[in-house]
Amino acid sequence: MSSQDIPEKNLPAEQGHAHGAVGTVEGDPFADPGMPPHEHRIQDIDERAAKRSERVVALLFTVSMLATIGFIASYVAIPHDKSIYLFPLGHISAQNFALGVTLGVALFTIGAGAVHWARTLMSDVEIADERHAIEAPAEVSEKVKADFRLGAEESQLGRRKLIRNTMFGALALVPLSGVVLLRDLGPLPEEKLRHTIWRKGKLLVNMNTDEPLRPSDVAVGSLTFAKPEGLEEHDHDFQNEIAKAALMIVRLQPDDIKDKRELEWSHEGIVAYSKICTHVGCPISLYEQQTHHVLCPCHQSTFDLSDGARVIFGPAGHALPQLRIGVNDEGYLEALGDFEEPVGPAFWERG
């Protein structure tokens, strides 16, 4: 239906309207009623109420800062293997629980503070603005700048310094939670790969019997696997430590040992070498007693135990590290120190 078909009495009247209102037709159920009259909040007319709201917002931002500090402290202070009982969840990780609670409080209080700030202190006057073309002529650009200045003034960010400072503090501290979590992306640059738990005086313990070894327990031509004294399978770091400290012990005739240092570091022909292949870290387990060669089953790297465990075949890059051993006063085999070079594969690329 065109406007010509509408009776003249039903057309909108041409008259002035209140701010934000649209011309209406009497009795028209679809007419725009316009905006209701603005009602002032208590904070708009009572500065003491505004100060109370300001303190509430600042308190929320301060709680966020404290929660962020608590997040970092929980990450540093709580052992990752510690558990607590929490009904009805049962036993859960204490560290994960603390991290979740503190980070949740830090983020929630920032959001709650921002919402309370907007609802109680920022201007809530509704403004109707006409739609305009996409292009931005000079007058529109000036209007945007003016609106921005007006919004900044109405937010009272410059006036409410307590809110401003605590908000900046909360927003500055929260990202530290993510920075702290970067710690788990990898090991810190330390010298963990350069050392094992072998020390002077540590006994050589048979991996199968869990008993200290005597020279008489190692027969000529036999292959025995050993671990350091005090390292137990139930230890939380057992796998990490045994991956570096695992030994294979072979007894040779002293006359068959070609390498001078190997002979000096042995005891009555008993030599101790790292069990970890220097190619990709597979455990070496195959020994040929006639040739004194050990073979890695993964990629067939072959080492000559009678000649300093040098590589004679395969992709391994360097010889197996030797552990210097001796016998203590009680007749047990013991280490006389740590390996003089790092064990395992690709160390020179990683270290």
TrEMBL record:
<keyword id="KW-1133">Transmembrane helix</keyword>
<dbReference type="GO" id="GO:0016705">
    <property type="term" value="F:oxidoreductase activity, acting on paired donors, with incorporation or reduction of molecular oxygen"/>
</dbReference>
<feature type="transmembrane region" description="Helical">
    <location>
        <begin position="97"/>
        <end position="118"/>
    </location>
</feature>
<feature type="domain" description="Rieske">
    <location>
        <begin position="239"/>
        <end position="334"/>
    </location>
</feature>
<keyword id="KW-0813">Transport</keyword>
<dbReference type="InterPro" id="IPR036922">
    <property type="entry name" value="Rieske_2Fe-2S_sf"/>
</dbReference>
<dbReference type="GO" id="GO:0004497">
    <property type="term" value="F:monooxygenase activity"/>
</dbReference>
<dbReference type="Pfam" id="PF00355">
    <property type="entry name" value="Rieske"/>
</dbReference>
<dbReference type="InterPro" id="IPR045603">
    <property type="entry name" value="QcrA_N"/>
</dbReference>
<keyword id="KW-0411">Iron-sulfur</keyword>
<dbReference type="GO" id="GO:0005886">
    <property type="term" value="C:plasma membrane"/>
</dbReference>
<keyword id="KW-0812">Transmembrane</keyword>
<keyword id="KW-1003">Cell membrane</keyword>
<feature type="region of interest" description="Disordered">
    <location>
        <begin position="1"/>
        <end position="40"/>
    </location>
</feature>
<keyword id="KW-0249">Electron transport</keyword>
<dbReference type="GO" id="GO:0051537">
    <property type="term" value="F:2 iron, 2 sulfur cluster binding"/>
</dbReference>
<comment type="similarity">
    <text>Belongs to the Rieske iron-sulfur protein family.</text>
</comment>
<feature type="transmembrane region" description="Helical">
    <location>
        <begin position="56"/>
        <end position="77"/>
    </location>
</feature>
<comment type="subunit">
    <text>The cytochrome bc1 complex is composed of a cytochrome b (QcrB), the Rieske iron-sulfur protein (QcrA) and a diheme cytochrome c (QcrC) subunit.</text>
</comment>
<protein>
    <recommendedName>
        <fullName>Cytochrome bc1 complex Rieske iron-sulfur subunit</fullName>
    </recommendedName>
</protein>
<keyword id="KW-0472">Membrane</keyword>
<dbReference type="Pfam" id="PF19297">
    <property type="entry name" value="QcrA_N"/>
</dbReference>
<keyword id="KW-0560">Oxidoreductase</keyword>
<dbReference type="InterPro" id="IPR014349">
    <property type="entry name" value="Rieske_Fe-S_prot"/>
</dbReference>
<keyword id="KW-1015">Disulfide bond</keyword>
<keyword id="KW-0408">Iron</keyword>
<comment type="function">
    <text>Iron-sulfur subunit of the cytochrome bc1 complex, an essential component of the respiratory electron transport chain required for ATP synthesis. The bc1 complex catalyzes the oxidation of menaquinol and the reduction of cytochrome c in the respiratory chain. The bc1 complex operates through a Q-cycle mechanism that couples electron transfer to generation of the proton gradient that drives ATP synthesis.</text>
</comment>
<dbReference type="InterPro" id="IPR017941">
    <property type="entry name" value="Rieske_2Fe-2S"/>
</dbReference>
<dbReference type="GO" id="GO:0046872">
    <property type="term" value="F:metal ion binding"/>
</dbReference>
<keyword id="KW-0679">Respiratory chain</keyword>
<keyword id="KW-0001">2Fe-2S</keyword>
<keyword id="KW-0479">Metal-binding</keyword>
